[in-house]
Amino acid sequence: MQLVRCLRIPALLCAFAVLVCELIARPYTSMGICDDGPYILMTRTLATTGHLVYNGWPAAMLGLQLYVGAAFIKLFGFSFTAVRMSTLLIAMLTAFVLQRILVRSGITERNATLGTLALVLSPLYLMLSVTFMSDIFGLFAVVLCLYGCLRALQSSSDRAAIAWLCFAVLTNALCGTARQIAWLGILVMLPSTLWLLRARRRVLIAGSVATLAGVIFILACMHWLARQPYVQPEHLIPDTFPIAHAFRQFTHFFLDVPFLLLPILALFLPEIRKSNPRVIAVLFALLLGYLFLATYPSHLRGGFPLEPTVGEWLGVHGIYDGVTLPGEPPIFLPKALQVLLTIASLGGPLGLIAGLLRLKDGSPHLDSSRRIFWKRLAILITPFTMAYVILLVPRAATFHLTDRYLLGLLPVALLVLVGYYQDLIQPRLPLSILLVVGIMAVYGIAITYNTFALYRARVAIAAEIYAAGIPDTLVDGGWEYNLVVEIDHANFINFPTITVPAHAYVRTPPPPAGICQVMNYDNYPRIHPLYGVSFSPNACYGPAPFAPVHYSRWLASTPGTLYVVRYSRDVKP
């Protein structure tokens, strides 16, 4: 037992569980997924030239993320997969640290391990862990900062507290260069920690100096970033604010939390049975009413979605749903399964509400030390959570909130839910949680595999077109593929918000009549497609004389198929 505790075996188990699931999913392909294609090309430039050069796509600073990816290129040579494996390493480290955070929060090793597995084996975490998106790197920055703050609060000596505060500042400053919202660790979480330590004057002064240094570092980074060529500036205050649109975005956004933490929230389902009949009837009516509004009246259905709600990384098609090829990809989650997932997902929060309603006259089963801890933890994480949500408001107003933006909030929700269950319901999480964790992990593995299988098929069908002597500028391979082609030909993406250098953006005239619509055609003016990749052979102007490419879909009844279609009526079939 002492050896297990010394070597942190449970935390290592969480980290290696992520690795095993990803190896099963076979996450390799030689094209970009979502935003990560331009990021990977930036990493290649950094590895070969030693210079950090933006290419018109990122609004994130990327920073440390690019250097970690460049190190993997130096070690293993360049490939899209080699760069993405750097994210997998960070995902494993994040799982390790997250388990230690739960333990440091007074949660038992057993419960902390089960809770951590529930998050790091969720479909969203598994999918993002093998892309080169900045979400996992940003989460790593937040998790390290939270760990450092907890250790500082729990340190008995001033010297140890100061050391942990400096650790939190340093790691958040450096890792936050990958994703700027992670700097809320320095800007919000560290000040909250210093408020809790205000009675220890030496710690307060030293911690304030370290935090101020972190703020100066952030300002310097933002000043540097604003002057880099081909960077998309991010605006915190939108020009317009459609309240209805933002409200709908946030509704869909937060409805995904119960689904992503289903193994934990499912533990609260028995709390419904313990409630009085009136509460049970009200909760049951709410659930039935939601399902009715989500499945029957077409004019209300969009406001009451079935799970998964946001539908980009975890959608009904069982792939990354940002794919915008012509035609409709095959459905992976039929309506009946969506209803079942919705019942399971919403049942957990209803059980949690039922449990909270039964708490009267405080919490008699909570000793004074745990009461004090929860009050301190609330001061530590509540301001961070509020600031994180507030910074999502401009995105909700001007664009859309995808499920991956939830990643930074899930550890906070996990910590609260597992701690609440252990302290106020029963001290040990039931082992039955492993069954739900396993089901979600299998689902996550299947989605990860299916996504990469689709992208490998897209690479294969593009190679078939190129083998016929057709240049890549005459092919619409989907917006992710087109971004890489544009960078290869022009070194940057033609994006309208680029301000440095001046006049870099050139407005692209609309495609001529008789050409199929290309998504974001203005971003890649060098692509004038005559052919395109499609889910349907009859899209645009019908099939082109190229063989379709099939790709396997785990847990699906049929394989998927991609076709080449004509984008111009003048192209002969």
Q: What would you note in describing this structure?
A:
This protein has 573 residues and is mainly alpha-helical. Among the domains are: 2-239, no CATH class; 448-566, no CATH class. The protein contains 21 helices and 4 strands. The protein has helices at residues 2-7, 9-25, 36-49, 64-76, 80-104, 109-120, 123-128, 135-154, 158-175, 184-196, 201-226, 243-260, 262-265, 270-273, 277-295, 298-301, 335-358, 368-398, 410-424, 433-467, 479-490; strands at 475-476, 531-534, 549-551, 560-566. Strands 1-2-4-3 form a 4-stranded mixed sheet. Strand 3 and strand 4 form a beta hairpin. The model has no long low-confidence stretch (mean pLDDT 92).
The oligomeric status of these chains comes to: single chain
How many beta-strand elements? Answer: 4
Portion of residues in beta strands equals under 5%
Which stretches are poorly predicted, pLDDT < 50 over at least 5 residues?
none
> What is the end-to-end distance?
70 Å
Physical arrangement of strands within the biggest beta sheet: 1-2-4-3
Helix count, per DSSP? 21
* SSE succession: HHHHHHHHHHHHHHHHHHHHEHEEE
Looking at the structure, what is the overall shape?
globular
Keywords:
573 residues, mainly alpha, 21 helices
Short characterization:
59% of the residues lie in helices and 3% in strands. By secondary structure, it is an all-alpha fold.
Strand and helix map with partners:
Blueprint: H1 2-7, H2 9-25, H3 36-49, H4 64-76, H5 80-104, H6 109-120, H7 123-128, H8 135-154, H9 158-175, H10 184-196, H11 201-226, H12 243-260, H13 262-265, H14 270-273, H15 277-295, H16 298-301, H17 335-358, H18 368-398, H19 410-424, H20 433-467, E1 475-476, H21 479-490, E2 531-534, E3 549-551, E4 560-566
Parallel strand pairs: 1-2
Antiparallel strand pairs: 2-4, 3-4
